[in-house]
Amino acid sequence: MDKNNKKAYVRTYGCKQNFADSEKINGFLTEFGFIITKTPEEADVIIFNTCAVRENAEQRVFGNVGALKKLKQEKPDLKIILCGCMTQQKHIAERFKSKFPFLDAITGTNVLSSLPEIISQTEKNTTIRINQTDKAYSEFKEEIKPLREGNFSANVPIMNGCNNFCTYCVVPLVRGREVSRTPENIVNEVKELIEEGRKDILLLGQNVNSYGAGTDTDFLSLLKQLDNLDGEFIIDYMTSHPKDCKKELIDFIAESRHVSHHLHLPVQSGSNRILKLMNRGYTREKYIELAEYAKKKIPDISLTTDILAGFPGETYEDFKQTLDLVEKVNFDSAYTFIYSKREGTKAADMPDPVSYEEKSEWFKELLDVQGRISERSYERFIGKTMRVLCTGEGRSNQNLLTGKSRQGIIVDFEGDNKLLGEFVNVKITKALPWALIGEMI
Ligand code: SAH
Ligand code: SF4
Predict the structure, then answer these.
(1) What is the pLDDT of residues 142-173, one digit of tens each?
(2) Which residues, other chains included, contact 79 with Cβ-Cβ below 8 Å and sequence gap of 6+?
(3) Is the distance from the beta carbon of residue 306 to the nearest atom of ligand 1 less than 6 Å?
(4) What are the residues whose beta carbons fall under 8 Å from the beta carbon of 63, sequence distance 6 or more?
(5) Which ligand ends up closest to the CA of 162?
(6) What predicted TM-score, i.e. pTM, was given to this entire model?
(7) pLDDT tens-digit profile of 214-233?
(8) Residues 411, 402: contact at Cβ < 8 Å?
(9) 282 in ligand 1 pocket by Cβ < 6 Å?
(10) Which of 210, 89, 234 has its CA nearest to residue 159?
């Protein structure tokens, strides 16, 4: 389509899935002739793709939207649109509407369906439109090509929504029920990406292990098809759910050619009582067994996790069970969060007697324990040779190149910029808590 000379800026909050959605929004806008800018100041249309998973993410968005008022006063023709998980919630959309009357449109996770209309409406008038009747994200706009960031990596959503209803989590409420893309569409997209020279493919879903549920395909079958493709590349995936991650999947990954040896397996808690209240569908014993199995079958695996501290009703005794599990499993790293109450979830109605201050004390303890483990955990790779995809300039030192190993670990080494986008062998000489340093061989 011809350029319409309009510029658009999209800011994304939250998870990789949201980033993938924004890549589609950018793809759509480009199709409509927009030029995508790097700053809001340059833009004629600003879109904030919001995140609702925790309260602090929401507060950040409120702050950032408030700051746009000045820009709108200076440029009355500027259009400002909110979308995503936060504004999928009616009460939040209403709050935005009354707090910031200068907004032009508010929609939810189904933004790709609403965009053509929103854009044409905002061109004509400046009334706020709240898509309260919009269904949460459910369909894939296969016809829209995402405008991807980066040169060597690509996010590939394989499904939308979530059917799990963990009691603390707002995701199923804002992203709707699980729907999977067809394996044909996914395989064709990945094939094209590899032909384009992308070598680090990240498959995305809230629970990739239930991909294809209710159809005649499943995640294992999808991985097998992708693993059969020609070329040198890594197929990474997230997020895995311990209740649905089967041993036969791990067996396949162990013998696969391309599938990542990074397993992000959120445990959330090490207390069986809390796991039950969270509706996670597994016990600490089952989790530990699965983690041990994965380590045995894939000896160079990198295990990472998510942990939620201070769930309603959690006691210090429960929390100590989480610390104990963290010590037992030895994660390379953990994303740790203090529980944040989300309206509409089951946990929001549970008694929550422990103060935020006390939860913060527990949280510090968790950071200390995991920090101590992460400090030394990469030392097991010293002396080993790793296959590394060269992705950019070194992060630990500007004179180095940086890359990504099959375990998803950052590896820095000395090398020529010409190697960008290539796989090289690197012998590891040093381990940092967040990266490895080595020499190309
Ligand atoms: N589908 C993924 C991730 C969902 S959200 C999964 O099942 O693991 C990412 C992480 O945010 C979760 O793993 C959890 O640790 C955290 N999270 C979700 N809801 C939260 C809440 N209400 N408060 C604090 N952290 C939360
Ligand atoms: Fe939320 Fe649980 Fe679904 Fe993950 S699996 S998105 S934590 S409800």
Answers:
(1) 999 999 988 899 999 999 999 999 999 999 99
(2) 44, 45, 46, 104, 105, 119, 122, 123
(3) yes
(4) none
(5) 2
(6) 0.95
(7) 899 999 999 999 999 999 99
(8) yes
(9) no
(10) 210
